[in-house]
Amino acid sequence: MKETEHSTNILREKLRANLLGEVYDLEGLADWCQRAYPKIASCCEFRKELLDAINYPGLVSPKAYENWTDDDSYPTQELLQAHFREIWNACFPDEAMD
Fold first, then answer.
1. In whole angstroms, what separates CA 88 from the centre of its chain?
2. How far is it, in rounded angstroms, from Cα 69 to Cα 9?
């Protein structure tokens, strides 16, 4: 993988597992992050990939997010970026973003 490329494999897996349609469970995802970080490698990778998705708008498009989660509530990149910050703040409250 090139240095400028960013993976979203763990991000996709965790969002699909926790935020898929009717089983939306941000609280469960946040609980896992707060228990697992920094002890569990997959949580560290999730944190890195979520931060990349926040810092590189377009890395995850609204369509990709919809495909991962069956959630079409974020039709624009701006709305999706705000949602990613909401997820970050829930999962990593000690490093909350505005």
1. 7
2. 14
**pLDDT band at 5, cuts 50/70/90?**
low
pLDDT in tens, 44-91: 999 999 999 999 999 999 999 999 999 999 999 999 999 999 999 999
Per-residue pLDDT at 42 exceeds 80: yes
Ordered DSSP codes for 39-94: TSHHHHHHHHHHHHHHHSTTSS-HHHHHHHHS--S--SHHHHHHHHHHHHHHH-GG
| Residue 50 near residue 11, CB atoms below 8 Å | yes
Sign of CA dihedral 83, 88, 90, 95: negative
Write the burial class of residue 21 (CB in 10 Å: 0-12 exposed, 13-18 middle, 19+ buried): exposed
43, 49, 65: which is closest to 6 by C-alpha?
A: 49
